[in-house]
Specification:
The chain has helices at 9-17, 27-31, 45-48, 51-54, 57-62, 64-79, 85-96, 110-113, 171-181, and strands at 20-25, 99-104, 119-121, 124-131, 158-162. The protein is of the alpha/beta class and 187 residues long. The chain has a single domain (19-128, 161-181), classed as 3-Layer(aba) Sandwich (Rossmann fold).
């Protein structure tokens, strides 16, 4: 756990008066909860694993079970951690600001678990599963030993609902994030 940070008085004053705030978070906020980051030189996940083998549509087509299993491992890691004071502070700020938007690059749901409601997930959510063909979220599928499981609607493989290298961010989420930042009261 890191040392408490002193919040500048000017920032506190501006937040108390704010009617609309947009916040962007990334891996750093969840690292304090124990979620491994991707890009740290020695300890990041990409220092140990090749993203081209695990986080691209091509990798999924080549080795769907390997990719599925790696994301299952990551889902287990995320399930075993708790939101930290930073997540809770942002949830509290959301309760105090009339129009609050939290834009996150994280896929771990820790903001939501801390109580945040207005969350835009730029890179998706590792807890959700989608059809690799239709893109629809699939919440349940028939029990099977096959990994990855198959979509109950079309039979295609299911995949984690995350944005992989080479894929575009979801247009609707990106547009909402841009709109949330277009205001003179955002800082």
């Amino acid at each position: 756990m890191s040392e408490p940070t002193s919040i500048p008085a000017e920032l506190i004053a501006r937040l108390r008066q704010a009617r609309r705030v947009a916040v962007l978070t990334g891996a750093g906020i969840s690292a304090e909860s124990g979620v491994p980051t991707f890009r740290q030189a020695q300890t990041g996940l990409w220092a140990r694993y090749d993203p081209q083998q695990l986080a691209t549509p091509q990798a999924f087509r080549r080795q769907p079970q390997l990719v599925w299993d790696w994301y299952a491992w990551r889902r287990g890691l995320v399930a075993g951690v708790e939101p930290n004071p930073g997540h809770f502070a942002l949830a509290e700020l959301e309760r105090r600001v009339p129009q609050f938007t939290l834009i996150t690059q994280n896929v771990d749901s820790l903001h939501q678990r801390a109580g945040s409601r207005a969350v835009l997930e730029l890179h998706g959510n590792i807890a959700r599963t989608t059809c690799s063909r239709e893109g629809r979220v699939v919440e349940a599928w028939p029990e099977s030993d096959e990994r990855p499981p198959r979509c109950p609607h079309c039979g295609a493989f299911l995949r984690p609902d995350v944005v992989w290298f080479g894929e575009a961010l979801p247009a609707d989420v990106l547009e909402a994030a841009i709109a949330a930042t277009r205001t003179p009261t955002c800082f």
